[in-house]
Structure formats: structure tokens, C-alpha cells
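Query form — protein NADPH-dependent oxidoreductase

QUESTION: What is the three-dimensional structure of this chain?
INPUT:
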Amino acid sequence: MNDTISLLMNHRSIRKYSDAPVTKEQVETIVAAGQMASSSSNVQAYMVIAVTDPEQKDKLKELCGQQTYIAECPVFLVWCGDLSRLKRAAERHLPEKQSYEQTTENFIVATVDVALAAQNAAVAAESLGLGIVYIGGIRNHSQEVSELLGLPELDYPVFGMCLGYPDQNPGQRPRLPQEAVLHWEHYRPQQGEVAVERYDEVMAEYLRERTGGAKDTPWSVLMAEKLVHPSRAHMKSFLRDRGFLKE
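ANSWER: The C-alpha cells for NADPH-dependent oxidoreductase are given below.
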């Protein structure tokens, strides 16, 4: 155990923020740390839009399912996959060649690049005493968000991130036992199933304590319920309209 691992192990999603401002310099430092994350072939296929304007944050709150902490946090970061930058490079340097920025592989590369950079940034923010929460709801109305932020074709919002000084100290949600996710030499399904059964008991107790006995649904039941209800079914057509997944 060292300071870095302790910081990582202490992560909590923060949904309530103090009035203390987050400076432009802090945001730039946090994003700089994000930029040092690994990137496939150094393509760096992402960009970040920092939103501080109250009216703009309020509009994003509405588009993300009325999550109030988007409007209340000092800075809301929108992490975007960005392949328009690469397309412009191809057009500038190899205009006579066909480029393939729209492929599924490049979509995966951009999405992974976004996630790696954002997680670096999240750790950097927490090291400065700030808190974050990821906002997948940015994809609830992907087209409207893209228009609001002025995103060009081949750019798309992947998730948002609230940023600010914590005004709460929430409990830490238990994670799956490591046996469910770490397998040596080859995948061992029975090992994973036993671990999930243990985790169901842990999560049921966690929910009982957190809700005062109102909920105690096991994790695997929650996941089953999640999968039988389609979520954001518009994403495939949205991505095709943005120029992706055409090959």
C-alpha cells in the first residue's frame, strides 16, 4: 500500500458539492493529467468541454435526466470521443487517399481513449481534494447534447463528469470479490459464479443499511432487471448519423 493506491481505494462518487470554486488552473492541471494516459497509437482521439456557465449547466442537467448535481457542481466536464481531428489530418496530408475514421475499430479506440484519459483526470482531481461523479446520462439525448455543445460529425459525448469540492462523505459501495474478475491462466466460470453469490449477500446487506431496510435486492437480480429493459436504444442510429460504424 502507498499513497497512490490508498487514494484509488478510497474513491467515492460525490453528488453534493460545496460553494468553493474550482479554478481554471485546477481544471487545466486535471485535464493535463488526463492527457498523460495511454492512447492507442498516440491518436489521442478525445476532447473535453468544461462547462461553468449556469445556464449551460442547467440545460445539460435537463438533458441528462434532471440530475441536479450537474447544475450545482462548479465545473461540469463533458468527455467526448473525437475523430474529426484525425479526419482533418488525413484530408490535409493525404487528400488523395481514402481514410477510414468511421470504422468500428476507430470508434472503439476513441471510446477507450476517452475512458483512460477521464480516469486519469478523476484520480488527479481526487488527489487535489476534489470529488467527481461520472454522468452516463449525457447519452440520454446524445443529439441534443451534441448540438448544444457544437460537436462536429465524428465527435460524440461519451460521459460527463461533475467536479467540485465534496460537501458529503458517502459510504463506499462494495465491489465484486476479486475472484469474479481476476482469473489466472484461463477463465474459470464456476469461480466467478461463487464470487457473485457471495457478492449478492454483501450488496443486499449494504442496501438494507443504506435504505433503512427499504431495499435489499441482490446485485445479480438488479443486473438482470437492468438488462431486460432496453437503455438508450437510440445510440446505434445516433452513432451512424455522426459518421461511425459504417464499416
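ADDITIONAL NOTE: The first strand starts at residue 46 and ends at 51.
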